[in-house]
Amino acid sequence: MKGFFIGLSKLILGVAIALILLSMAGVATARYLMGRLSVLPPKPFYGEELPVEPPPTEAAPETTPETTPETTPEAIPETAPQAEAPPAETPPVVEPAPVDPALEPDAYDAVVVQPIGLVMREGPGVEFPQVGGVDVNEAIVVLEEPADQSWMKVRVVANGQEGWVRSGNTRRAE
Fold this sequence. Notes:
Protein name: SH3 domain-containing protein
Region (Disordered): 48-101
Oligomer: single chain
Organism: Shackletoniella antarctica
Distance between the termini: 94 Å
Pfam family, one: SH3_3
Largest sheet: 5 strands, antiparallel
Radius of gyration: 31 Å
CATH architecture of the domain at 108-172: Roll
Domain SH3b: 117-168
CATH class of the domain at 108-172: Mainly Beta
């Protein structure tokens, strides 16, 4: 009978340890996922928009530049070799498409009011691929509004790109 109780206590102790280990693994996994999901993803870029260099991931010590006589530009001797900065790459120039001064009969000028801008698609629906984006306060021409008024076909005034955006995120320009 003594062996039965020893075996039963080993079984109960083993199951308890297994449950504790599984719950600790679940808590660790949940904490990891919550930490990963609390970081915002990088801002998407549309069309010819160039990304801004992200801030460094390491916390750099904040130092205030102290101007001492040794570091001022006047203290640098004229004969010191100057490091030349590499030429900055210029983004390709996109020629804006000519905008007809006379709009189509149902077209009107508008401005994007959505604070994060709009995604432009090839057709009126999320199943169509993205063709670009429109920033907030950017001038557009609304070309077409279907009867259901959930999407509208627009042309960006700045570059002449056409596509479909969600309705309700623009206002008529004065």
